[in-house]
Amino acid sequence: MKKIVMRSAMLALLLTPAALMAQKATLPKQVTVKGTVKFAPPEGQPRKIWLSRDNGASKPEVVDSVELAPDMTYKFTIKQDHPGIYKLNVMYWDHISFWSDANVTVNSRGYDTAKIKMKIPHFYFVEGSSDNNFINQTELNNTNGYLRSVEEYNEEYFAKQHKEKGGDSAWITYLKTRKRYNPMREDAQQRQDLLMKIYKDRPVLIYALRGMSGMHDTTKYVEVMQHLDRLIARYPWLTEAKTMKATITKNREQMMRLQPGQPVPSIRYPDAAGAMQGLEKYKGKYVLVDFWASWCGPCRAAIPKVKELYEQYKAKGLEVVSVSIDTDKNAWRKAMADEKMPWEQLLSDNKDKTMEQFQFSGIPTLYLIDREGKIVTKFTGYSPEAEAEVKTLIDKGTAAVKPAGERKSIPAVAM
What we know:
Layout: H1 2-14, H2 17-25, E1 30-39, E2 48-54, E3 61-67, E4 73-79, E5 85-90, E6 94-99, E7 104-110, E8 126-127, H3 132-164, H4 170-177, H5 184-198, H6 206-209, H7 218-234, H8 239-256, E9 269-270, E10 276-277, E11 286-292, H9 297-313, E12 318-324, H10 329-339, E13 344-347, H11 351-357, E14 362-363, E15 365-369, E16 375-380, H12 384-395, E17 407-408, E18 413-414
Parallel strand pairs: 1-7, 11-12, 12-13, 16-17
Antiparallel strand pairs: 1-4, 2-3, 2-5, 5-6, 7-8, 9-10, 11-15, 14-18, 15-16
């Protein structure tokens, strides 16, 4: 009891007007960001670096941009009311986040010199404050988790292929029956939970809270709200926490509208000819709505499998509609020509609105819609397990009547 009283008294002292004024007076009003890039893009490709600030809403706001200098360096001077989360977009190749409570320095690769180019996550250490190290550690955890998930996915795929092509079943049996120490997701979650305990009273915690609300998970939602309320009380100047609380609440309300059994949201997107199209014409059929992009490696890798599914189940009433979130129409058209998908292709005219309306942050994301136009289930990533579930649901003639959680299948590309 004594500890609780003392802690309450200390917090009360911290939140007195004089203490709050002193707290804000110590916040850095200007910081410098210095960066170097190892590989420049070929002639004619962008050499620009954009700087964005995350205000707690769904989309960071671009606040500045510079051209990469001939000596492969760049520099920003940030003038701010209080520290916050910033992101560097280095020529569309590197995406690097940092906390702006001190000067920062970062070295990145830049242009991908590999023959086959894929925009997968890379970790870059940002030299800055101790609070900035929370972002460093979170990003390393996320990057390693993504790469490990891809490796585990590939290993299981090739183990199955080995058996199907006449090999023995020892490999796939081992993967399926051997209990692993700390599976990938559990390991990543343990690391993130530890980081959040260490930094639970620091304003930089909002970096992890952005994507941890688990909108359909009430327990997780309440936990995140409690974190935000504590930060709002301790740091009244942290306006991002207030905005984030409102954004998460709004997203949760939208997520509830996307649960199984709910009608799929109405959409109107242009097709390749520019004509506006919706999903109403597919009533009476199952529809697999696939959100993807031309630059998304896992999306492109999934297309041949979706083709096989489509050919096998078209006669049973399955249709597929691809909705691209590309912002480059030419890249979209080239990808369509390369992939030759035999179903309707639509292009979102507002990527951020589409991602908010359908509540996804990674692609490919797929929704299975029943014959009445209601949501049956959702997948993030396309896996053999997701494919098997779609087949089972169609074979059984399943309608969207039972609520079920989102099916998440790694890998997928985070946005």
